[in-house]
Amino acid sequence: MTQASAHRDLPVWRTLLFVPINVERFVEGAHRRGADAIHLDLEDSVPDAEKDNARRLIETAAIRVRRGGADLVVRINRPLDLAVRDIEACVRPEVDAISVTKVASPSHLQLLDELVSKLEQNRGLPVGRIRFIAMIETADAFFHVRKIASATPRLAALNLGTEDFAMSIGMEPEPEALLYPKQHTLFAARAAGLIPLGFVGSVAEFGDPQKFRDMIHRSRRMGFEGANCIHPGQVTILNEEYSPRPEEVAAAHDLITRNDAAKAEGRGSFAVDGKMVDVPVLLRAERVLTRHAAIEQRNARLCEFATAGAGGAA
């Protein structure tokens, strides 16, 4: 593979489940939901009067939500003074990534990167270990998305924050209106070798499971690889739809096998079911198998944690 993503060691984040850090029952149950990552929220779900207390909860909440093997992401606040205090509280060994809200420019991320690097160094953590997820949530930031995507090696994923972005534009967060900005953000993520997070629709729509599944299935075919979710009922759907289907994995294996046979005969391409198979088709097959293997590894890790937890409970 020649794309930038081939050179990055990116995590598998099909599902990032938002959990308000100040709601005890949600924190306690988060590790049982099956999400690839738990997205502890310091931002919208925490009232202004509770922000300081929310930061104090990070240490214990981080350990608890990781019990099922999920990665831990912390969503921080804007403006900058709140972001700095959030970062000072969440640069810890248990935190895998920081979700940077309302990213304004490449320099915005670079400034926060400098702060996180200094804290990692001072706290004995590997510098660069904690990743960033960049949230594009304003019209102005949208026009800088390509440069934002390349702002720092710490950046792992890019997402368009549907509700805030729609409000910034003055539009309704409907699929027709979101298609262009969502695709443009996806293209910027792919060009920079990042995970394209999201789907073409609103994260608030969880009342109709089949409608939600159809939306995710369509978005995955567009190239998205994972998404935030606000309800545990969305986790299974996202995990299934953002994973290669068994028939896709079988077909990819078949293509690779046929290609090996064709190369042995000195042929650079071949036909399957009346369709020509050439380099782009084979690269897609390789991508399917690579993603399938990464997801299987992730699932094995989650099973190990679940087994260890069951043993401990016994």
UniProtKB/TrEMBL annotation:
Keywords: Lyase, Magnesium, Metal-binding. The keyword Glycosyltransferase does not apply. One of its GO terms (biological process) is oxaloacetate metabolic process. The keyword Ribonucleoprotein does not apply. Mg(2+) binds at E137, D164. It comes from the Bacteria. GO terms for molecular function: lyase activity; magnesium ion binding. Pfam families: HpcH_HpaI. SUPFAM superfamilies: Phosphoenolpyruvate/pyruvate domain. Its cofactor is Mg(2+). Residues 14-232 form the HpcH/HpaI aldolase/citrate lyase domain. Substrate binds at R75, E137. Belongs to the HpcH/HpaI aldolase family. This is Citrate lyase subunit beta / citryl-CoA lyase. It comes from Bradyrhizobium erythrophlei.
